[in-house]
Amino acid sequence: MKSLCTLTVLALATWFVHAQPAMRPQEQVETLQKSKIPFSKSALFKATPALNDPDVPNAQFTLFQEEEASNLLQDPPDAITLVVSTDREQFVLELFKVELFAQGFSLKLARPNQGTDEIGAGVYYRGIVKGQSGSLVSLSIYADEVLGLISIPGRSNLTLAKYQSSKIKTPGLHVLYAEDQMPEHHDFQCYTPDGQRGYSANELEDHPELRSANSCVNLYLEVDYDVFKDKGGLDATQRYIMGVFNEVATLYANERISLNLSQLYIWNTVSPYSAYDAYGLLIQFKDKRAGSITGDAGMLLSYKGGGGIAVVDGLCDPFNLGYSGIGKSYQTVPAYSFTVMVLAHELGHILGSHHTHSCVWNGNNTAIDGCPGFTDGGCSTPAVPREGGTMMSYCHVNAAGINFSLGFGPQPGNVIRNRIANAACISGCSNKPIVPQPTCGEINLSVTLGAYGNETTWELLDVTKAVVDRGGPYQIQSNGLKIQKKICLPPGCYTLRVLDSRGDGLCCRYGDGAFKLTDSNQAILAEGGQFAREVTTTFCIDAQGKKVTNVVPPPTTNLGCTEINFNNYEILSFGDSQDQGTASIGDNGKSIVLQNNAWKAIPFEYDITANTFLEVEFRSTQEAEIHGIGFDTDLSISTVYTFQLWGTQDWGYQSHNNYEGTGEWKRYTIPIGQKYRHKAQYLYFACDNDAVASIGNSQFRNIRVYEKNPCPRLSNFDTPEAFASALSVFPNPADDQLHFRLEGWPEGSYQLQLFDPLGRLQRHQQIDKADGDLTVDCTVADLPVGFYAYTIHGKDHKVSGKVLVKRAE
């Protein structure tokens, strides 16, 4: 094959390739419309006759259509036009779907194994009110309710929620109301102290070149037991919190700030947070979580405390925490916009902003507004803004109020954006608009659910193992419910992966579920129902969605490889009184270190079969009595489950007790299933030395569990992510030339390959990397329009991704 790729070494010049800046919802909607992305019409609400409830002054009512919601949840469109018709008014909403969760997101319960620990089915949208410049909308849609906010300049913030009173008995009734007009609306007192150092002119200025870096803030939320108890359980609690987070993320998106949820921790048992003032609760939260949260900032939510408090400028600091005293529900409706305001306000402190009545603004140490009637710092008191206050103001204490559509205002917004852009601990993320897809063929997926639809999920993966579509989990009481989905895919090879979180498949222990995937001619691509934890099928289709049988599909191995990231698990004490030591997490969650007579475990449900293997790297710099690892069904010590790797005392299986004591890492591949088979609940680790408890350490890293087919080989470099982050591929989409820039990669020989949608090699180039940065220029002008997979691999690592070849109009 003739090579069309050439090399360019940049010895003196530095190239900067910036990610696309985050867009405001208004700009996102306009971009989608210009790109001819269709906005599906949804009849989710229907007007009602005039209704009245004196407990909700000036409220408007609308009827929620559950059947329409069910269809939308099964196949949520990327963009929708939704009309909310009330008994007095009509709002036309133009919305686009958003993903709220950071990569590796987890939901954790304080008391595990009490029902599901998975986020319930919901779909999240944000956008604008058609024809209302400066408006802002967020909607969180569930099977039987919607939580949302509509903010229009010049009007109070409107909350859309399920009507909770028995005064009007109408199924599906929802209410649209202004929370600041409730007779006993909540008061808010922020106890965060304002600093005395004024912001510099540079801190207050807008820096578009920093905005384009598009950093993403990952937020850890912890919900106190009083909220869980008031909401009536896990499902209602997570719905409410996710609805609140959607709106908070929408407010920040309107400031060109990307906000994701990295972990949601819910106390479903009594929590240790016993203080009754905001400061005391923050101190207790700090004592428990400082330096250990999964995220860039953490917030405790509770009804206690009577206000909020946070650490100003907490990014990249172990004390990156805050407390938000949120609002309890009113008699008939939830306290929603109040909670959104409190959480967004306190997070703004962590991200660097003081109150707007603090004497730190304008470049001359004066205040922006005088909403509370005074200033903090002794400067003169400005007027109260007639159009309403911004997010870091105290305008909620007077008639001006806080208008969400005004956001944070220019100066606080610039401070926050500049803090994020310059924070070394914040990673980049993608916030790109939906782009038109190349010509695709339509296939059809049908899933008949068993009794527990909340256990069922599925995903489609392309040849690079990137997820191109997914579905589930579904509602719990769902036996016999049929899910139908049309899927449009470019020509190529794909893998359908159907999973059951409990390991009993769709059929036949609890129901008679099944799945079937057919091409555009109704030929079967994949089908089944009786399996354990997952089943995978690989298939290929052409541009018309027809099954292709003369193409050898890519291998389906390694799809079941489970890699342990300790940041996603709670570290538990194992073995009762045997555990007297400590554990610490390192390497971004990839490793754990046990010291001083420690036995620790993580919750880890896994059906161990004859083909189960455990891969782990181990080292120690001080020998103890037992260094080991194993899977157990409870938290009690069992010698028959432990594989000993080193130690002065023989205990457990001795087949891998061969560590040389060098202090260097050694990799073990342990055939667990050849020794025992059971449904494990915990993965545990040992550094036993009860004879002399103050010595001994066990260090474990790169832990992976798989069935029969080995996981992909681990890189000898720090992480594959390090290589991926040092690779820039641009432009994407590409028309004529595609450039691969390798920054800081080690010297050596690399292979660049480009595959078409059917997995056929189209480009192959050997790269001899010397010192300095390197750019590979690749011609794609002669390639057909469509998605292409690329790989760059060396001796011990591989980086993969996708590019789109698209002709300029």
UniProtKB/TrEMBL annotation:
Domain of life: Bacteria
Segment forming the signal sequence: 1-19
Gene3D superfamilies assigned to the protein according to its UniProt record, in alphabetical order: Collagenase (Catalytic Domain) (3.40.390.10)
Domain Peptidase M12B, first and last residues per copy: 215-398
GO biological process, one term: membrane protein ectodomain proteolysis
Keywords assigned: Signal
One example GO MF annotation: metalloendopeptidase activity
Record InterPro entries: MetalloPept_cat_dom_sf (IPR024079), Peptidase_M12B (IPR001590)
Keyword Membrane included in the entry's annotation: no
Protein name: Peptidase M12B ADAM/reprolysin
Species, as recorded: Haliscomenobacter hydrossis (strain ATCC 27775 / DSM 1100 / LMG 10767 / O)
